């Protein structure tokens, strides 16, 4: 992979990189399209990264369909699929990890304490292997995007990070490989995430600035749907992810909700400018 990227770089070709864990959906395809717009070639990695799953999480059950993924990539004109084996990326004796001091101690990092160490480690390894000029990440994983942006800045990675908007089903559910776990009834309950975000946005637009009021309304709406268990609902600063009490500057609402056994996340900017 490194030799192939060196060749592209010598030929003056700009490389866009889309890291994924496979089981591709429209959200991933939108990242590939964004890559084609900005670069001469698009490289997609497909790797279910074991280090970002905690004990008891869904590493084994995580949906996989490599042949279908290859067909979708081909349709999108992807130039290279990089699909390493876990033993290649984490050989015996592996002991070097990338950790961030603050960002992982918010939102998803509270219930998934080793998750962002795994993400930051694998993404930095992939950057060193794929050697892209730009890398594209979905905004659905909002905290992940901020972690990667911070890591790239702090570690002087020579990669431009591009965030791409969330792709939603027609009824508003944010696309996720994990949506496949949902039963038809749970699929209805999963709408509580986008509906409550929409309500929070409307409240902000109508002049409510008290974050607690907005969070309370969000929690109430989600709890009305069966089989939902809230992990967190937060209104925070989009860069530091620190909680905000009053919405007097740009703010994002982020939430994680278990629907049945499936943990879903979503987010929305409540105020871009205040
Ligand atoms: O967002 C994902 O699919 C993963 O966290 C990533 C960035 C591919 C790292 O394994």
Run of helices and strands: HEHEHEHHHEHEHHHEEE
Q: Indicate the overall shape.
A: globular
Unreliable stretches (pLDDT < 50, length at least 5) are none
CATH fold group of the largest domain? Rossmann fold
Strand order of the largest sheet: 3-2-1-4-5
Report strand %: 15-25%
What top-tier CATH class of the largest domain fits best? Alpha Beta
Bound molecules: pantoate
Radius of gyration: 19 Å
Could you explain how this protein is built, in words?
Helix content is 38%, strand content 19%. The chain has 10 helices and 8 strands. It has a 5-stranded parallel β-sheet, sandwiched between helices. A 3-stranded antiparallel β-sheet has the order 6-7-8. Helix 6 (115-130) packs across helix 7 and helix 9 runs antiparallel to helix 10. The model has no long low-confidence stretch (mean pLDDT 97). The protein binds pantoate (PAF). Residues 19-21, 49, 52, 119, 122-123, 141, 144 line the site of pantoate.
Question: What's this model, at a glance?
Answer:
The chain has 274 residues and is α/β, with parallel strands linked by helices.
Please give the structural blueprint.
Elements: H1 2-10, E1 15-20, H2 26-38, E2 41-46, H3 66-75, E3 80-82, H4 86-89, H5 107-111, H6 115-130, E4 134-138, H7 142-154, E5 160-164, H8 184-189, H9 191-205, H10 211-223, E6 228-236, E7 251-259, E8 262-271
Parallel strand pairs: 1-2, 1-4, 2-3, 4-5
Antiparallel strand pairs: 6-7, 7-8
The structure holds pantoate (PAF).
């Amino acid at each position: 992979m490194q030799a192939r990227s060196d060749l592209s770089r010598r030929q003056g070709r700009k490389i866009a990189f889309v890291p994924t864990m496979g089981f591709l959906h429209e959200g991933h395809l939108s990242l590939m399209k964004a890559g084609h717009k900005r670069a001469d070639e698009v490289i997609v990695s497909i790797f279910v990264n074991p280090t970002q799953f905690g004990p008891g999480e869904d590493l084994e059950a995580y949906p996989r369909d490599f042949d279908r993924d290859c067909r979708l990539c081909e349709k999108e004109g992807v130039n290279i699929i990089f699909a390493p084996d876990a033993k290649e990326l984490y050989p015996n004796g592996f002991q070097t990890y990338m950790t961030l001091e603050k960002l992982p101690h918010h939102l998803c990092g509270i219930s998934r304490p080793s998750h962002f160490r795994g993400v930051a480690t694998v993404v930095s390894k992939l950057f060193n292997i794929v050697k892209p000029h730009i890398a594209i990440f979905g905004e659905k994983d909002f905290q992940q995007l901020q972690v990667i942006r911070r890591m790239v800045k702090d570690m002087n990675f020579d990669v431009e990070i591009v965030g791409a908007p969330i792709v939603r089903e027609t009824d508003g559910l944010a696309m996720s490989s994990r949506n496949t776990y949902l039963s038809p009834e749970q699929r209805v309950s999963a709408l509580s995430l986008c509906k409550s975000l929409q309500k929070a946005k409307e409240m902000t637009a109508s002049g409510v600035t008290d974050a607690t009021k907005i969070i309370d309304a969000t929690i109430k709406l989600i709890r009305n749907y069966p089989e939902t268990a809230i992990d967190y609902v937060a209104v925070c600063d989009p860069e530091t992810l620190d909680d905000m009490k009053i919405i007097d500057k740009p703010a994002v609402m982020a939430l994680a909700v278990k629907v049945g056994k499936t943990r879903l996340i979503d987010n929305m900017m409540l105020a871009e400018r205040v």
